[in-house]
């Protein structure tokens, strides 16, 4: 069945029925790789501001009025004038971090925009505990900003502690955010999102976050898309989704030494921080329906993919090169206790993924399965495994149901993007997943698709 989230503007297929949608429309033999697949659009795409309020390092909060001739000096002052339909235009320069904005709320047809000025360098917010914190926002677009040197988090978006209210924080688009050099070596994040529903993180860059933190840390976040972004030397994880997070697509991103667990689907969260609050009558989970689609992972201290108390989660069409210790981990860090029942990590799908690894580097058991999980419920479909230093030792023996694996075949990856060369055994060797899914270059996958994050040219 195909699950469509109208609020996102994207479709994701958990299992594609036959004939496919593309085959029904275009007929048998339609080569979807010959056309571009649309990138996800955020809620405010196509909308325009009704008024603008300007901020400049040469401005004045006391004497300014927010006009181009008399701009304000700070984002905090400009935000006092932001009503639905307002764009806060921040001109190039360096601004003090530690900005806290509460209840900045636009509407579905008249959002609020905060971002850099067209044609100028992105304004830089430096320092503070959180360089920018947005509490209880709604219908907000944050775009073209840089943050550096915050001691806690680069950008922090939260629900103000109103954990049981699904409308406390919702509809936020983050576009072209550049967050680097955050924290002091602990659990600090380049982007922290807590209790937010309906969100988009698009075309952003996260680098050198706290050693124990994440590029993006999601706690109780729901219905989100992380697309077209880059994660470099980010600490514990590139993206982590836990605390009851659900229905999040992580698509077309690049992880370069993306932490101990480059993508941590699930995790361990204090019971009091779950959004929505934990239930005593129905089973709980750290995360549900997290999907990693067509990403490139190069290096990782431990593993590129960790299913940690994650239920019905998917990794499809990813290219994974030189993981540190394990190809995949299946773990359970939060178990039933205190009157709360937690489901184990189960029902994972790994399909059309391409693993290239060094057998002498990874563990003797390349797929790490921890206690209190259900590895037998996982399905591995048309994945390619290649140990480049010992091809005969390429089989990682995945747990669960295994179909159509390619073992020990050199995928012939080329260049820094690790694309399959012509004649690669990965080409046209996958099982159909979703013909509307774009590869890393923006092309639709063919029918049948190639294995990995790239479709053949």
**Strand count:** 38
Mean pLDDT: 92
Measured on Cα atoms, how large is the radius of gyration? 22 Å
Estimate the global geometry from the Cα principal axes: globular
Secondary-structure content class? mainly beta
* Main pleated sheet: 24 strands, parallel
Instruction: State the distance separating the first and last CA atoms.
Output: 28 Å
* Count of discrete alpha- or pi-helical segments spanning 4 or more residues: 2
Overview features:
38 strands, 38% strand, single chain, 457 residues, mainly beta, ten-stranded parallel beta sheet, 2% helix
Could you give a quick summary of the protein structure above?
The protein is mostly beta strands and 457 residues long. The chain is 2% helix and 38% strand.
Write up this protein.
2% of the residues lie in helices and 38% in strands. With 457 residues, the protein is mainly β. The protein is built from two helices and 38 strands. The strands form four sheets. The chain has a 24-stranded parallel sheet that branches. The chain has a ten-stranded parallel sheet with strand order 6-9-11-13-16-19-22-25-29-32. The longest helix is centred in the N-terminal third of the chain and has 6 residues, at 21-26. It has helices at 21-26, 75-79, and strands spanning 2-5, 10-13, 51-55, 86-90, 94-96, 99-102, 112-116, 124-126, 130-135, 138-148, 153-158, 170-180, 189-194, 197-202, 205-207, 214-219, 222-227, 230-232, 237-242, 245-251, 254-256, 261-266, 287-293, 296-298, 303-308, 310-311, 314-316, 319-321, 328-331, 349-351, 354-357, 367-369, 379-381, 384-387, 401-403, 406-407, 413-414, 419-420. Mean pLDDT is 92; it is low at 1-33.
């Amino acid at each position: 069945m195909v699950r469509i989230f109208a609020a996102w503007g994207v479709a994701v297929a958990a299992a594609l029925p036959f004939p496919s949608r593309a085959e029904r429309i275009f007929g048998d033999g339609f080569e979807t790789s010959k056309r571009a697949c649309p990138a996800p659009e955020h809620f405010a795409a196509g909308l325009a501001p009704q008024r603008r309020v300007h901020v400049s390092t040469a401005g004045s909060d006391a004497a300014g009025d927010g006009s181009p001739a008399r701009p304000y000096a700070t984002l905090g002052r400009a935000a006092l004038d932001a009503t639905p339909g307002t764009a806060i235009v921040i001109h190039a320069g360096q601004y003090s971090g530690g900005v806290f904005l509460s209840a900045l709320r636009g509407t579905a047809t008249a959002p609020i925009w905060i971002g850099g000025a067209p044609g100028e360098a992105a304004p830089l917010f430096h320092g503070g505990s959180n360089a920018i914190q947005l509490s209880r926002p709604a219908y907000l677009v944050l775009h073209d900003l840089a943050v550096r040197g915050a001691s806690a988090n680069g950008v922090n978006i939260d629900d103000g502690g109103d954990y049981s209210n699904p409308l406390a924080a919702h509809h936020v688009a983050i576009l072209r955010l550049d967050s680097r050099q955050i924290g002091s070596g602990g659990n600090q994040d380049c982007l922290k999102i807590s209790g937010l529903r309906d969100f988009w993180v698009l075309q952003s860059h996260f680098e050198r976050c706290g050693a124990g933190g994440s590029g993006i840390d999601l706690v109780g976040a729901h219905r989100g898309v992380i697309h077209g972004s880059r994660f470099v030397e980010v600490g514990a994880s590139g993206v982590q989704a836990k605390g009851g997070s659900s229905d999040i697509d992580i698509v077309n991103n690049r992880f370069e030494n993306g932490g101990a667990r480059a993508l941590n689907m699930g995790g361990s969260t204090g019971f009091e921080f779950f959004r929505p609050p934990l239930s005593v009558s129905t089973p709980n989970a750290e995360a549900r329906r997290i999907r990693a689609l067509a990403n490139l992972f190069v290096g990782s201290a431990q593993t590129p993919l960790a299913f940690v108390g994650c239920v019905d989660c998917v990794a499809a069409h990813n290219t994974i090169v030189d993981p540190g210790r394990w190809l995949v981990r299946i773990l359970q860090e939060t178990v039933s206790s205190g009157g709360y029942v937690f489901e184990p990590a189960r029902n994972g799908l790994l399909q059309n993924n391409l693993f290239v690894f060094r057998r002498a580097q990874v563990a003797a058991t390349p797929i790490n399965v921890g206690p209190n999980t259900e590895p037998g419920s996982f399905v591995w479909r048309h994945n390619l495994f290649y140990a480049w230093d010992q091809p005969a030792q390429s089989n990682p023996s995945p747990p669960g149901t295994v179909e159509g694996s390619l073992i020990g075949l050199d995928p012939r990856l080329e260049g820094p993007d690790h694309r399959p060369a012509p004649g690669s055994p990965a080409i046209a060797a996958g099982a159909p997943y979703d013909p509307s899914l774009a590869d890393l270059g923006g092309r639709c996958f063919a029918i049948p698709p190639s294995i990995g994050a790239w479709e053949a040219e």
